[in-house]
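Issue: copy button drops trailing tokens. Both records pasted manually instead:
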Amino acid sequence: MGRPSLAAERREQILRAAARSVARHGLAGSTQERIAAAAGMSRSHVRHYVGNRDELIDALWDHVITPYFASMRDALNDREPAARLPALVDYLFGPQMARNEDDLVIEALISGAMHDVRLRGRIYESYARLEREIAGTIRDAVPGCGQAESLQLAYALICMAFGHSTLAPLPFPATRQAGMKALAAQLLAALEAGHRAPPPPTAAG
């Protein structure tokens, strides 16, 4: 029986090293040589297991962003549509979105995308997919909500959640954090109220 391939293990090792490097040195300072050294490998190993620099950056983006999107889906699965909106707010403004080293990597990649059209498209694709998923959750929970309206609200929630996470290290009062979550819940409640069927007219006395 042949020896199992170590490709997946080596790839994960390289991507963890790349994340540490980008968090510490930024995207421009994270050369393949530096990432290879951090992973305890040669540059040729990095190219073999992950690919060229563009492929490495794409893989790194997936490495840091996919767990957030996957855990959001897990938080919403197996719930009735009406229960998904409170769960969505809890997720977007809960401990899952707390600041960690991944945020430094995500921010470095988004910053790098300002000067890299290819990377910008790659990142946009991920966030546009997240926007569509949240919008679909909203439409499932709020009958009558149209696509344009749900996408607009999904975009607002994403901006609120990621902006909230970005400012979390600053010494704003805890009431600001609670208030942002409450505001998101109010937006969704207002949407539900706006699409709630009016009560049937009562018979004249």
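Record 2 (pasted manually too):
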Amino acid sequence: MIKKYDSTKLHQLVLEIYQKYGFSKTDSEKIAHTLIYTDMHGIQSHGVQRMIMYDNFIQSGKVRIDSKPEIIKETPVSAVIDAHFGLGQLNGIYSMDVAIKKAKNAGVGIVTTKKSGHYGIAGFYANMAAEQGLIGISSTNSRPAMLPTHATQSFLGTNPIGFAMPANPHNFILDFATTTVPQGKIEVYRKLEKDLPALWVAKNGDQPVNDHNDTTNLDLLRDPKSNVGLTPLGGVSEFTGSHKGFGLGMMVEIFTSILSQGDISHEIEADNLAVGPCQSFIAIDPSMFGDREQIIKRFSAYLEDIRNLPAIPGKTIYVHGDKEALNYEDAKQNGIKIDDATLAEIKAIANRLNVDADKYLN
């Protein structure tokens, strides 16, 4: 079952939990903001649903509470950052801030970060730049999950890409895994006891796995030695464009692990404390190309032209960011959706840390 909970109270609960872990109040505020932002925009796979995974990482030492990101190579337009295995959200905010500052000074900022952690949704960091009048791009590699086209074992991560550009009435935000769906969406469907509706997961390279009760296969999703993995965007056949999702995943790998000289997806293991994801953060100042306000105005008109195209009866044409903006307004008024299984996980974490979750959830 899914219920709605007040976003402000939930923010305070997450803030208190992360302070109990030992994060500073400032850092805990940043963590809470990214998680609640994600749920308020309707992306349940990467909001508070992820707290149980972060809890496991913190307890195992894969996430180091006191670590701070450090610039180890820098030019006026670029930087390489060693995150020293701090929490991914904190590394991401720091890294995009560096990219934004460089873009404001030089027109463009490109940052690549290694030894990081799971940082949530790529679109959050891209939108950090858009909120300051810039174009933002962010991506991350991850543990193996994607089956390269025609392969029977996973090798690439879900390797998402986030892109954001200022627009009216709200920013354009494109955020997608280069697999058909992210790992977190599979987790949400299993918690809700819903079968997978399409070819999201395959075994032996091309055989669909749809039954949410198929623990024999679904529990092997993150095991690169198994014959089960997530399909690339485009599925398992070149006829449907599988090679395009596979290629996009490889492009992410180049901008994250290859340029930072960090860990490639297939080198990242859940139990190996010496390896971690790599990320990239790009900020671009549109004023390099002309009057910024006119560029944004023209782009906004372009998006409106798309929304006003003739639509299939009963359907609405959305551009990227529209649904998220609608979700945000609904969540602000009516609360954030949380399923019972995720709620139980959060309460268990809170209880162990001596946090009274009920005062925030009633």
